[in-house]
Design goal:
This protein is α+β, with helices and mostly antiparallel strands. It is built from three helices and four strands. The chain is 38% helix and 23% strand.
Length: 78
């Protein structure tokens, strides 16, 4: 199931998790702040205070970059 990465420009965590997913051959869709969604959309979806990136697998929220690394390890991909 493809991942969705909610990212923003100049975000090192966003760039790093995209590199990890690409390196593992995992497909993902990148949605970028101010191009694909607004700050208000992001807050409505993930709550006030949510940080970038936010990663989803299908309809399930995994979390940020660190939670995604844990998730990938649990799946045996890392």
């Amino acid at each position: 199931m493809p991942y969705t990465v909610y990212s923003k420009k100049n975000c090192s965590y966003c760039n790093n998790i995209k590199k990890v997913l690409t390196g593992l051959g995992e497909s993902y869709i990148e949605l970028t702040l101010d191009r694909n969604f607004t700050k208000e959309d992001f807050i409505r979806k993930f709550g006030y205070g949510a940080s970038f990136p936010r990663i989803m697998e299908g309809d399930q929220l995994i979390g940020g970059a660190n939670e995604t690394i844990v998730h990938l390890r649990q799946k045996g991909l890392l």
